[in-house]
Specification:
The protein is mainly α. It has seven helices and no strands. Helix 1 packs antiparallel against helix 2. The longest helix is centred in the C-terminal third of the chain and has 32 residues. The protein is globular, with a radius of gyration of 18 Å. The N and C termini lie far apart (38 Å).
């Protein structure tokens, strides 16, 4: 297994550690560790793609697993955010937002797999890249807020209100962009999807 593929597998293996750090109540410095894991995973996501292209190490295994690895980690983050609470006991983000993001990402991954079976490689659209960037920025900012609130001493009521309001709008904008990018991607490739319908 080449280095880019090992990095991809490593990102998948880190996901349970990320979830445990984020959700387990007695995990020491859990939110800070989860933030570190996500940042490192985001960097390796960029690096393994660059390395595979630069050294001609692209494989069918990597083409299949790399986008799946990204979806597993980002979807895990949004699902975990539903489980986390503000100081009033309300969910940090609404479940429907996570459902929209997770559903779109796996539907598009399924579409790519169908296309691949038919010998067609569907390249990422520019809009899709913006969607991915918005998801990663939203997750990192929310993780920073969680770490600040629970481990860095910023645990005032005012900070919590500001943080939770910001998290809501960040994820709402991300959900809207996710749906729009998914729809444009589907519409552009509708003939491929509907061929056997």
């Amino acid at each position: 297994m080449n280095l880019p593929n090992r990095l991809t597998v490593w990102r998948i293996a880190l996901t349970p550690v990320f979830v445990a750090a984020l959700l387990l109540p007695h995990f020491p410095w859990g939110k800070t560790i989860a933030l570190g894991i996500f940042i490192v995973a985001s960097i390796t996501d960029w690096y393994d793609g660059w390395l595979a292209r630069a050294r001609n190490l692209q494989t069918a295994f990597g083409a299949l697993l790399d986008p799946v690895a990204d979806k597993i980690l980002t979807c895990a983050a949004f699902i975990c955010f539903v489980e986390l609470r503000d100081q009033n006991g309300n969910a940090l983000i609404q479940a429907w937002m996570a459902l929209v993001i997770v559903s779109r990402d796996f539907l598009i991954t399924g579409l790519r797999l169908v296309a691949r079976e038919r010998g067609v490689m569907l390249q990422a659209e520019q809009f899709g890249k913006h969607k991915t960037a918005s998801q990663m920025i939203a997750i990192i900012l929310i993780l920073v807020g969680l770490a600040a609130r629970e481990e860095w001493g910023c645990n005032s009521k005012q900070f919590d209100t500001l943080f939770c309001t910001t998290a809501f709008w960040l994820v709402l904008m991300t959900a809207v962009l996710t749906v729009w990018s998914g729809w444009t991607f589907f519409w552009k490739n509708r003939e491929l999807v509907l061929r056997d319908a």
